[in-house]
Amino acid sequence: MTPQNILEQYGPREAMEYDVVVVGAGPAGLASAIRLKQLAAQQQHEISVCVLEKGSEPGAHILSGAIMDPRALDELLPDWKAQGAPLLQPVTEDQFLFLGEHGARAVPAALQPECFRNHGNYVISLGNVVRWLAQQAESLGVEIFPGFAAAELLVDEAGVVRGVATGNMGVGRDGEPGPNFQLGMELRAKYTVFAEGARGQLGRELIARYRLDAGRDPQSYAIGLKELWEVSPEQARPGRVLHTAGWPLDGSTYGGSFVYHLADNQVAIGFVVGLDYRNPWLSPFEEFQRFKTHPAIRPILDGGKRLGYGARALTAGGILALPKLVFPGGCMVGCEAGFLNASRIKGSHAALKSGMLAAEAIAEALAAGRDGDELDAYPRAFEASWLYTELRRARNFKQWFKKGRLVGTLMTGIEQWLLKGRMPWTVHREQPDHAMLRPAAEMPRIDYPKPDGKVSFDRLSSVFISNTNHEEDQPAHLTLKDASVPVGINLARYAGPEQRYCPAGVYEFVDADDGAKRLQINAQNCVHCKTCDIKDPTQNIVWVAPEGGGGPNYVGM
What is the CATH number of domain 3-67+129-218+319-393? Predict the structure, then answer.
């Protein structure tokens, strides 16, 4: 039974009315909600705000490095220190290394570009910051509904977004309503804020429906993989920030690592690989595991204990790939739009600021009695903000690296260190990430070492500590447009790259009954990183939100 048939048989859906519905309880969505309530109090009129979160709680699906620039938080909640915000570890030391296979070369502090300097910033768990922001939002009267995934746009006959509908609960794998079936609910709003994060399901639909990316560069993405470790006291250096480039990636592949020292002997270690890589034999997960064995990195982890693992796609296209931010009845904020500053490896401050700017435009519209129009004040305010200036300075960062690491490093140094971001020309990109993959026969095969179980691990043990869970008897949230494509094209031409670019062991080619190969999708392993939706060379894989509450449950990430 299709969702439409279910609705026809069991409908109509219950509906709730709000002034504003926010989709996603990340930093951008919560900043929007908080700012709306602040402005309502200042203007002495009520603004009803609802936030939907597909995770089991705010922060459950949040994954980031993370170093936080507090500039936007200072603006949103100036008393955040007194209110107990979990920004507890200031950055005390910055270091950047270029890695060879057996050695490392440090960049002198005087030559580090400003974008890699973190004085005044904090090493954080973004998940914990989001949990704290949710508490602040609720104290102001924001209604937060965790465990409810927004699955459908509500669009009227005039093409105006009028809210969203949550997915049906209790539908079996066969598509039939089960004994615990519950029809989804409509959340109707005068304006809807979309804050699903990078490659959001509804954001993807909005961009296509309203052609929001017309005239923009294709969005560029990367996959970020992260582990949280408890290390020996001798290796703990709270506040130390280390970034690396180079080995194990080749010179034509964009990427690098981070090692952030928190308090309590904890270290966040991660690896980022640009999803415009060409070699289908490359596995971002395996590159991460191999990176941890480097002589400059392994001593940090030896004798320690791995506490958590996760993965998430992130936007890296910057201001040149930002879509139009508004459409009739709503707007996009945070990584849904692509506000991350790849040159600084930071997005939380940009997410907060974009959410605040959107909220201010919405509050102004509501005060004027408007409803369902385009919030043109939001992009205008962005273009007048410090965030626009910051992203404009970094506009060429990712583009330089499509010419290789050597050129990328040289030009980034010239642009960011020598010219302070005032490059007189702009470098554009034309191809999306999925179009960059070359046939397997044309690229060198990569043979990865087996994990040692001490600092390097396999996928399944990693997924286990991400606390990922999905109800097994539910419709697959990873679907194929054409079931023949994985074997007929992906396996034949690209050696089945989905079994390598997925960081959670979701995709594997197994023997079919007739002796041929077939693609098996282990959807219960999915950590919601969205990499498959982005990198699949034929764009045949579609990620949609599973039943609310499913997915990872990150702790301290």
Answer: 3.50.50.60
